[in-house]
Input
Amino acid sequence: MRRSTARRTRATLAVAVTLLVAGCSLMGTGRDSQAPTVTLVTHDSFVIGDELRKRFQRESGYRLRVLRKGDAGELTNELVLTKDAPIGDVAFGVDSTYLSRAVDNGVFASYRPEGAGRIPIKYGYGANDSPTPVDAGDVCVNIDLRWFEQHDLEPPAELADLAEPRYAGLFAVPDPATSSPGLAFLLNTVSTFGEQGWQNYWRELMNNDVRISSGWQQAYKQDFSGSSGDGSRPIVLSYASSPAAEVDRNGQPRTKALLDTCYRQIEYAGVIDGATNPKGARELMDFLLSWKFQRRMPEQMYVYPVLMGVELPESWQGVAPRPSEPTEMRPQRVERDRAEWIRQWRSLTNR
Amino acid sequence: MAVPDEPVTADDASANGATANGATANRARPDGTAVSGPRPRGHAVFITVGAALVLGFLGVFFAWPVVAILRLGLGSGLGAVLTAPETWRIVAFTLGQAAASTVLAIVAGMPLAYLLARVPVPGKALLRALITVPFVLPTLVVGMAFRALLGTAEPNAWAIVLANAFFNVAVVARTVSGLWTQLDPRATDAARSLGAGPFRAFRTVTLPALRPALWSAAAVVFLFCSTSFGVVLVLGGGRYRTLETEIYLRTVRLLDLSGAAALSLLQFAAVLAALAVAAVARGRRENVLALRRSRAAVRRPSGVEWVPVGCAVVVLGALAAPIVALLVRSVNARGGWSLAGYRALSGTGGVLDVSGWQAAWNSLRTATDATWMSLLLGVLACLVLTSLRSRWAAELMDAALMLPLGVSAVTVGFGYLVTLHVLPGDLRTSPLLVPFAQALVITPLVIRTILPVLRSVDRRVRAAAATLGAGPWRIRREVDLPLAGRAVVTAAGFGFVVALGEFGATGFLARPEAPTLPVAISTLLSRPGELNTQMAYAACALLMLVTAGAVLVIETLRSDSSGEF
Output
């Protein structure tokens, strides 16, 4: 017994040491390269891809480190919380819903990147503004085309239609309290029906058996019938760009975004005030607004680039065109009333 | 055998059971250190240093961040939150669902523990590996799987309880079977020969002996369930809210730090109360057990013993259902059966920066670091806890080490943001923060696995060793180590599995730059497109495979001459 214990202890130790020595440890990583680092703080949906990353590193001489922090809301709140001791040099992904909070708290240093001159007027970007718009992700109602064909039902066209009895039990939407697109949809209803009307509209939706789930994943991947074909509901809240990901083998779209139901979310990037590497931060900002990065954004992140003249990929042209007149809301107003609207929404939906 | 053959009679054993609640304030400590004469200085110094190291880690990575974030929030909002009826509804639901989940996990876990400890099952290591698999699955995925399996798209409290229990059955099975394996079966045999029926023998002999492990497991499961987040979010659909989801909402989404701080304090109070109950219930004294392992302990069940075996099979089926559903989902798409998800996962490109294999490798590396850190801290803590002369000091330190299990990961994570930059090397953005944050959660599990075994070491054995002139080091080596060795390996295996999943503050803050499998899964699930969905389920399958493999490797280290397998 004693001998075997000793043997076993030795074996265990040997395995442990081997694992550690074999590089199965993070000790000493992270500080491996000699190149100075520039750190991008962003949300979980950020994708850069190897090719662009290498390109930036080659051209700037900085190593790019990407820290992903939940979604836009979580990212903004972490930036605000760490503004006296920033965790990175550039922040990407604060959106119009949270812009005011970040700006009011002095998260961003002022910098106007190269290429900012090619941002269209509609993004409301002034010459001295920081941060800078980088892309737009429009939140729209999506429908399962095949389902409506099979059931011989006229698809809805605008938000008001969703409250009609013929669409009862067909709509799935994520909770605005726990989901970013869900919040965008709530803001869309406030913007569309006004302070007086939005609560009524939601009551009608509730009477129409709308299905509310806590996240986009459940609404889109489980309740919706148009993506993986799992769910039973042919109407879902998602993005204008989602249909680009739902093309069948013959190149035919399975889903469609209703372009008259969209709410514009602009995503911003900016140099963080107090960045340890401000020079690298400015170079990274220029890169984010460069032609080469903007052109790749749709396929990598399912968003619409802001730069004038950047073409959408061919596959997107017919399937996921840009909404022409999405509703919007001033960031200041969102900041002022967001919490109250969520509170009212929760009490009227009994959540 | 390091333990002399010293049969415990049925009288002995049932007497122990009967007096387990009896106050024995004036007794010497059961582990025998008190009767082993003056300790050499080296041992005392070692214990002091060990205690300083463990408590120092806890202070830096838990107490300081939590206090800092609470101080930011404490202020005007406190009274308003505490007087709101809604708050107390949330507290009630939190405790209610955690209690229900704990009971269910214990009821389901006990037959499995019996199966693992007492029944000769072929491929037992594989069985252990399989029941551990649920533990690593991302809560979002499990929530969605239960939503699909139970057909409950509407908020459903029972679905939350079921999913919580699904995660935690492994905790009960592993903790309890660890001690059960080492129980001397002759005590039960003696009871049976004196005329006790199988049920009575179990109730009066086995169950009292298992108490420390049972209450340990119950405490851990309760804390896990009271802070369960993803499951409550997905299956509660916003209608059923717990302190954890509400703290998340107020901290992460609304940046309402004062409301969050008030709720965190409530959570703290609830956790302390739960720990106090568990400590009292564990009993004033550990039972003196003759720990031994023998071939005779594992034997073919007969007669009524088939009942728990049958129950165990049912439980295994229930555990397997969501797992099988996930596996099926990974090869089944709109167009029928296909391996497209696996093919896409093995390449790069798409929305993932890395291939599935790379993510799996990242997971293994992170888990390795978290495991050795937790083992170091946990074993040190156990040595300190069994050496402390004062029972109160031991209980307090034990509770302090358990706290991280019951405090919101959001609170800890956001606490890191406002504190850790003060230390050199800004840990907030270092890849090492992940294993540190995980070690915080895993260390209490390590302690709960090793401590019951260590404390149950018959003090007479230690006293005998001391009488024969063995010093504390020698006693540790000759008596404690052989008995606790298996528990240490068990703890390592379990800790590794916990680290493979997404646990504690890692889900919120300490997200590694190099994506691990759980991170890859959540990335894939947050993208449209059928292929991404299939890839996510394929990544789940890979995570389960990696987990089962890791558990199997560790299990082989545990096998020894006892012929259990």
